[in-house]
UniProtKB/TrEMBL annotation:
Belongs to the ABITRAM family. Its main location: other. The gene is ABITRAM. GO terms for biological process: dendrite morphogenesis; regulation of actin filament polymerization; regulation of filopodium assembly. One of its GO terms (molecular function) is actin monomer binding. Keywords: Cell projection, Nucleus. PANTHER family: PROTEIN ABITRAM. The keyword Amino-acid biosynthesis does not apply. Pfam families: GCV_H. This is Protein Abitram. Signal peptide: none annotated. GO terms for cellular component: dendrite; filopodium tip; growth cone; lamellipodium; nuclear speck. It is found in: Cell projection, Dendrite; Cell projection, Growth cone; Cell projection, Lamellipodium; Nucleus speckle.
Length: 172
């Protein structure tokens, strides 16, 4: 869990938010880039274990269960996908066989998943907040202000990370 600072420019986003320790798993931090038009892009925070220690991605799978593949997403009609805060988006397996589930972090309609990372997984490692994003979600208009309630600002996130780093460096 070493914080190395931002990996790339994210200045075009209205708000950059973080969900640390997803589902209680230390350092499994997610990042939400929220545009002024409410659209949210889900990606990995720079502290996520996948982006640390020179890891290599073996596989990215949008097949969540036998009955659910995010690749079959419909953006209109009755079958459009509405996600809850903890809906799994994909599973990522690294070459060391560690597997991580990436979650939506926010409620909203799944607009798209990034199929480019299936063919070029290194995009996720090299450009997580641009070409290596995981999914695009549109929160309901009436909920768009509330989605930020469970997420942290960069300053709050950096405070969590520094406390985590201090705790890790304490002798046990």
């Amino acid at each position: 869990c070493c914080y190395e600072g931002p990996r790339e420019s994210t200045n075009s986003w209205a708000v950059i938010l973080f969900y640390p320790d997803m589902k209680g798993k230390p350092c499994e931090d997610h990042c939400i880039l929220q545009h002024s038009n409410r659209i949210c892009v889900v990606t990995l925070a720079e502290t996520h274990p996948i982006l640390q220690n020179g890891r290599t991605i073996k596989n990215i799978n949008y097949q969540i269960s036998n009955a659910c593949s995010r690749l079959n997403n419909k953006v209109s009609g009755k079958s459009k996908r509405f996600l809850t805060d903890f809906a799994p988006l994909c599973r990522i397996t690294c070459t060391d066989e560690t597997e991580y589930t990436i979650y939506s972090c926010i409620r909203g309609r799944l607009l798209e998943v990034n199929e480019n990372i299936l063919e070029t997984p290194s995009l996720l490692l090299e450009k997580p907040s641009t070409e290596g994003y995981i999914a695009v979600i549109l929160p309901k208009f009436e909920e768009s202000k509330r989605i930020t309630e469970n997420l942290l600002s960069r300053e709050e996130f950096e405070s969590v990370v520094s406390k985590r780093s201090a705790a890790e460096s304490q002798p046990s």
